[in-house]
Specification:
This protein folds into two domains: 104 residues, Rieske [2Fe-2S] iron-sulphur domain (Rieske Iron-sulfur Protein, 3-layer Sandwich), CATH 2.102.10; 210 residues, Naphthalene 1,2-dioxygenase Alpha Subunit, Chain A, domain 1 (Alpha-Beta Complex), CATH 3.90.380.10. Helix content is 24%, strand content 27%. It contains eight helices and 18 strands. A hairpin with a 3-residue loop joins strand 15 and strand 16. It starts with 35 loop residues before the first helix and ends with a helix.
Length: 379
């Protein structure tokens, strides 16, 4: 364990030569990417206090529709109530802590599979055998414990912090940018969910996503598809950033783009801490990339593909195949190699290459992300 960090005392970890100004800053220390104490601290300091994507409102369209999810090590579920509202709750029975719901489905009454305690879709306790023995306890304790939920462009986010600022207050500009790129974004539906496990810390995966310094050599087909050479448009706002790039060639080795179809431009975004909305050339679509921490040196990548129809066109299937078999594979190898290198006795902290005039190789958005991590862990 990192001797510079005492999880019992709560003293923050040593950030070394990290600086609030990207041009002056070293990267976060290597051990922040594998130390179990750092990872435990991130749960309370980051994951439990931020907005985390879970599903789409079209996944739970009718009263009683539910979808189980997770934030770090906390099980939750989202459900549409009889009044049409989407709510979220901790996925645990108030009686003896058994999980209530799995996967997705529809129920008019939430029934615990252990002792059959029952709850309504608004989280209120409905009934249980022997309830008369708990008359004094039930009124204040038996209801399910709520979790903040907010719909953002059709996407359902949750936050375990009851006092957190609304997501729209922190990420409103990005949503406008996404809707401008894909005017029908709110009406898209999820066609597929795909997941892959990566042997790397979650921050390693996000660092890699936040720069294209590595793209020319490591993503040759992507560079045929989009034009980064001094033409990307960058925007920072609140807990988000976005950058758009011009489409380069519809005839490329990544995936075929039908020139007669409606063609959206490229738009890549980020919502602190783990949500990455991506729009690629082609028909109206959204690839929602979520980086899910599963351990100090393991991450699950979740890709939700949204299109106008749940039955993707041949072009859209080609796009999904490119993401799954080419782009993610290229990045996975890089991230896992970096994760091994972070353990080297020859490395402690690196530096950021910062050149706002050349977004094709500038790393200022890696620093943007790392500063959020730094501030959360050292405040």
């Amino acid at each position: 364990m990192n001797e510079r960090f005492n999880p019992i005392s709560g003293r923050g970890p040593d950030a070394g030569l990290f600086d609030p100004v990207a041009e002056h800053s070293h990267t976060l220390p290597a051990d922040w990417y594998y130390d179990p104490g750092i990872y435990r601290r991130e749960h309370e300091a980051i994951f439990y206090r931020t907005w985390n994507y879970q599903c789409h409102m079209s996944d739970i369209p009718d009263p009683g529709d539910y979808c189980a999810g997770r934030v770090a090590d906390q099980d939750i579920f989202m459900i549409r109530g009889d009044d049409g509202e989407i709510r979220a709750f901790y996925n645990v029975c108030s009686h003896r802590a058994h999980p209530l719901l799995e996967g997705h489905g529809n129920t008019r009454l939430i029934v615990c599979p252990y002792h059959q305690w029952c709850y309504r879709s608004d989280g209120c306790f409905h009934g249980a055998r022997g309830r008369d023995t708990l008359k004094k306890w039930i009124p204040d304790n038996a209801d399910l414990k709520p979790v903040r939920a907010e719909v953002y462009g059709g996407l359902v986010f949750v936050n375990l912090d009851p006092d957190a600022a609304p997501l729209m207050d922190q990420a409103g500009k990005l949503l406008g940018d996404l809707r401008a790129t894909c005017p029908g974004m709110d009406d898209l539906v999820r066609a597929e969910r795909w997941e892959i496990d990566v042997a790397a810390n979650w921050k390693t995966v996000i660092d890699n996503n936040h720069e294209c310094y590595h793209c020319a050599v490591n993503h040759p087909s992507l560079m045929e598809l989009v034009d980064y050479e001094s033409k990307a448009r960058w925007s920072d706002d609140g807990i988000t950033f976005s950058h758009g790039a011009e489409n380069k060639s519809l005839d490329n080795t990544a995936y075929a783009v039908d020139p007669d179809a409606a063609t959206q431009a490229s738009m890549y975004g980020y919502i602190w801490p783990t949500t990455i909305p991506l729009m690629f050339p082609g028909s109206p679509s959204l690839a929602l990339f979520q980086v899910i921490p599963t351990g100090p040196e393991t991450t699950r990548e979740r890709w939700d593909f949204y299109f106008a129809s749940r039955d993707p066109s041949p072009q859209e299937r080609g796009f999904m195949d490119y993401i799954k078999t080419v782009l993610v594979k290229e990045d996975t190898g890089l991230c896992e190699n970096v994760q091994r290198g972070l353990h080297s006795r020859g490395y402690r902290q690196g530096r950021f290459v910062v050149d706002h005039a050349h977004p094709e190789f500038s790393e200022h958005h890696v620093h943007f992300f790392q500063k959020f991590v730094h501030d959360a862990l050292t405040e």
